[in-house]
């Protein structure tokens, strides 16, 4: 039973996004066996030290621990439960003479004892299997049955069928009592659902969020958190790659000098550190209408990776063109987007004008270390395309990438003119969901690292 | 090495005897690590006594402490073992005559090669092996406490290399085969969080975070380490340090700074904190010019509040 409860706890933690391997879960059980459940703080520490390996997760762990083991500790922090305990009908005057043994035992229990029996019965059930809210009734019924309330049902039926008035009164009293117990059971089950079902729901929701089109993402609360975590994971991965790629050619001079110690045998080889070219990234985002959401996530993603992408300059345009690097550095994405829109929005995007402005602003700095990323739907409102500017940028920069939130089949429909711009880009990709974005960021970092 | 640790309280009491005052969770970590035979990863801000913990554990278990200080570029030859190239060369030079006489009666090239082959093994044997901390810990005749200090300063590759050691307590040396620990060492790894450690490493360790001490714990530590300091002054000093830790500073004073300061005040024969005294000795606890300026600004307010109490 102990192991089962701990397994459930581990699953709860996983649901709360703490990564726990099977080995760690096993360690936690061994640690718990060593320390025991009391004192509670020591038990908590033992679990924390074996399960939580990052201090940032500690607060989350504590929250889960308190929620999960609250029943066992008999702590009631919700007011409603306190009143419940008081409202449990008094069964002491109930004559248990001809009742079944199980029933007699159950009704003789004090509220605390009853809570204990409930917890014991609950330990036989696997609440992590509960995934949708409608399963609660079923689990509550099972829980009540596990407590041995079946016997009570039988007794009630028997007493109610009896012709004697006194028996019928007792049946009535028992029904009241049973109702209370059932309510406590469903309360317990509801809390279990909140612990486990929520975790399951969160995993599902994250899965949906990753694949959902940007414009629908606004509805999700945890989206910022998700973007940050995706970006961090990717950044950590690439940090490792960068390190590996650092070692350069053999340093003949140092090797020769050190070999003198060993009779001119080159025992120790020395390597040159490869010099890293600092790559500069320029991001130009269309922030009109539907493209706006994509721009916001792209910028948020790139800035969350600023330890592997130190030099990012960003620009936004709609009717006007402006640099927005500082907005995203200083403010949270919601505020930043608001500020940017105030400055550049207006009717009609003009790509030709944008390229011209960009050329004027940064044309001189663009060199073989520069990567230019353009995000937009290439809908130019039938204005001059200005592809000659892009051609010039592309010639000077190392590479140009184009991200388009629309499906490739629509890249040239209506006033969209991707065909004019595409020849000057190293790659043009669709970017309409977080998954696309993450794939592009991975591709970008590879492209930046390999060429150094 | 002491093989049995009876309880968490046993650890606390023994640590206290050596002058290392720790709280329940630190003692629990040492207890669990010894019982489960798992390494402990100790994290926390600099100066809270992470390295000291390993030293105390070694004294408590009556085991020798072997320390490996990590730094960028640390490699196997510094951490695990190295061949004594110089000695090998010297031996071949000295034995040159012996060698040629040995080879002179060899009738064919193959025969000579075979003889040299036997010799080769002699040159890659224990005589020419220079064991470094990790190998020393594995081959020790008695259980030891191994401290791998500031693992976050080592490269990612080195961290990966440690994995075999930490989970199986064995290590592979191409020329000698697999070296298994004769006695499992108790391993402490410390980190200042300079970079994120890999999940694989964390998975193999227990995790202990040592924060800045609570006022009560800090008072006990000061009382233990600097007993000459008067009660009243100790109270004031800890109060002031705790107050500083609530500020937004570049480098917060840790327990090691508290102790330095306490010792300095004893030397200066101070019996209570005075504004002048604090101003003059502030550089003992704060190592950054901006922090010192910030703290100076706080002084008048803090002292007026103290007087009001």
Description:
The complex is a heterodimer of chains A (452) and B (309). Chain A has 452 residues and is of the alpha/beta class. Chain A folds into four domains: 2-69; 79-206, no CATH class; 247-276, no CATH class; 280-450, Rossmann fold. Chain A has helices at residues 2-15, 22-35, 40-51, 58-68, 79-87, 101-107, 111-123, 136-146, 149-161, 165-211, 223-244, 252-259, 291-304, 325-330, 333-344, 351-362, 387-396, 418-421, 434-450, and strands at 247-250, 271-273, 280-286, 312-317, 321-323, 370-375, 399-404, 427-430. In chain A, the strands form two sheets. Chain A has a six-stranded mixed β-sheet, with helices on both faces. Chain A is elongated and about 100 Å long. Chain A starts with a helix and ends with a helix. Residues 73-86 of chain A have low confidence and may be disordered. Chain B is of the alpha/beta class and 309 residues long. Chain B has helices at residues 8-17, 24-36, 50-60, 76-79, 85-94, 96-104, 109-123, 133-139, 156-168, 199-203, 215-225, 231-245, 255-267, 275-285, 289-308; strands at 40-43, 65-69, 81-83, 129-131, 145-149, 170-173, 177-180, 186-191, 206-209. In chain B, the strands form three sheets. Chain B has a five-stranded parallel β-sheet with strand order 2-5-8-1-9, sandwiched between helices. Chain B has a two-stranded antiparallel sheet with strand order 3-4. In chain B, helix 1 crosses helix 2. Chain B is elongated. The A-B interface holds A 19, 21, 23-24, 27, 30-31, 34-35, 41-42, 45-46, 48-50, 52-55, 58, 236, 240, 243, 261-263, 265, 267 and B 8, 24-25, 28-29, 31-32, 35-36, 38, 41, 43, 85-86, 89, 155-157, 196, 199, 202-203, 205-209.
């Amino acid at each position: 039973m102990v192991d089962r409860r701990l397994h459930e706890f581990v699953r709860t933690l996983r649901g709360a996004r703490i990564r726990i391997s099977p080995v760690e879960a096993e360690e936690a059980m061994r640690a718990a066996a060593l320390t025991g459940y009391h004192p509670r703080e020591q038990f908590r520490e033992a679990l924390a030290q074996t399960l939580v390996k990052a201090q940032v997760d500690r607060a989350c762990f504590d929250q889960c621990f308190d929620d999960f083991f609250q029943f066992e500790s008999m702590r009631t922090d919700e007011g409603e439960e306190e009143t419940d305990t008081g409202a449990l009908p008094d069964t002491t005057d109930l004559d248990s003479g001809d009742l079944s043994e199980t029933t007699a035992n159950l009704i003789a229990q004090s509220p605390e004892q009853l809570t204990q029996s409930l917890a014991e019965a609950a330990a036989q059930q696997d609440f992590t299997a509960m995934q949708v809210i409608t399963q609660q009734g079923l689990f509550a019924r099972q829980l009540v049955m596990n407590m041995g309330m079946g016997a009570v049902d039988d007794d009630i039926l028997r007493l109610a069928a009896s012709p004697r008035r006194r028996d019928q009164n007792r049946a009535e009293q028992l029904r009241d009592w049973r109702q209370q117990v059932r309510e406590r059971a469903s309360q317990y089950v509801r809390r279990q659902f909140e612990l486990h079902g929520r975790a399951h729901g969160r995993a599902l929701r994250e899965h949906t969020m990753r694949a959902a089109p940007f414009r629908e993402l606004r509805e999700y609360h945890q989206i910022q958190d998700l973007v940050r975590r995706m970006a961090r994971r990717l950044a950590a991965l690439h940090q490792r790659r960068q390190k590996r790629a650092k070692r350069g050619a053999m340093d003949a001079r140092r090797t020769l000098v050190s070999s003198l110690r060993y009779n001119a045998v080159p025992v120790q080889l020395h390597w040159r550190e490869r010099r890293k070219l600092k790559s500069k990234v320029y991001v130009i985002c269309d922030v009109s209408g539907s493209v706006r959401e994509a721009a916001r996530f792209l910028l948020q993603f790139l800035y969350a990776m600023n330890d592997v992408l130190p030099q990012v300059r960003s620009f936004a345009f709609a009717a006007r063109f402006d640099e927005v690097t500082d907005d995203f550095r200083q403010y949270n994405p919601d505020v930043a987007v608001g500020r940017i829109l105030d400055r550049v929005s207006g009717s009609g995007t003009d790509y030709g004008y944008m390229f011209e402005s960009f050329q004027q602003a940064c044309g001189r700095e663009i060199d073989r270390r520069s990567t230019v990323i353009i995000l937009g739907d290439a809908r130019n409102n039938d204005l001059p395309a200005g592809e000659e500017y892009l051609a010039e940028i592309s010639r000077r920069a190392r590479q140009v990438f184009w991200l388009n939130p629309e499906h490739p089949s629509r890249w040239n429909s209506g006033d969209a003119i991707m065909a004019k711009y595409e020849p000057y880009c190293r790659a043009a990709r669709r970017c309409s969901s977080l998954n696309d974005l993450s794939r592009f960021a991975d591709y970008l970092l590879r492209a930046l690292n390999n060429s150094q | 090495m002491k093989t049995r640790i009876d309880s968490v309280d046993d650890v606390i009491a023994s640590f206290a005897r050596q002058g290392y005052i720790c709280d329940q969770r630190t003692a629990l970590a040492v207890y669990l690590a010894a019982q489960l035979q798992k390494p402990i990863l100790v994290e926390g801000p600099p100066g809270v006594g992470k390295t000291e913990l390993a030293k105390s554990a070694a004294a408590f278990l009556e085991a020798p402490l072997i320390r490996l200080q990590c730094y960028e570029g640390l490699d196997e030859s510094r951490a695990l073992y190295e061949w004594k190239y110089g000695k090998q060369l010297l031996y071949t030079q000295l034995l040159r005559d012996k060698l040629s006489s040995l080879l002179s009666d060899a009738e064919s090239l193959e025969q000579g090669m075979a003889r040299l082959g036997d010799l080769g093994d002699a040159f890659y044997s224990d005589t020419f092996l220079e064991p470094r901390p990790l190998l020393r810990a594995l081959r020790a005749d008695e259980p030891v406490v191994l401290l791998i200090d500031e693992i976050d300063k080592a490269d990612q590759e080195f961290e990966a290399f440690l994995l075999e050691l930490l989970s199986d307590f064995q290590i592979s040396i191409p020329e000698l085969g697999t070296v298994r620990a004769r006695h499992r060492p108790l391993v402490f790894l410390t980190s200042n969080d300079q970079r994120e450690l890999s999940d694989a490493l964390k998975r193999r360790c227990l995790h202990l975070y040592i924060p800045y001490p609570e006022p009560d714990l800090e008072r006990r530590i000061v009382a233990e380490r600097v007993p000459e300091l008067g009660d009243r002054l100790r109270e004031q000093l800890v109060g002031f340090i705790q107050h500083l830790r609530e500020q937004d500073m570049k480098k917060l004073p840790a327990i090691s700074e508290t102790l330095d300061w306490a010792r300095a005040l004893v030397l200066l024969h101070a019996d209570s904190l005075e504004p002048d005294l604090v101003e003059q000795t502030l550089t003992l606890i704060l190592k950054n010019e901006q922090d010192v300026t910030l703290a100076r600004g706080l002084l008048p307010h803090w002292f007026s509040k103290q007087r009001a109490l």
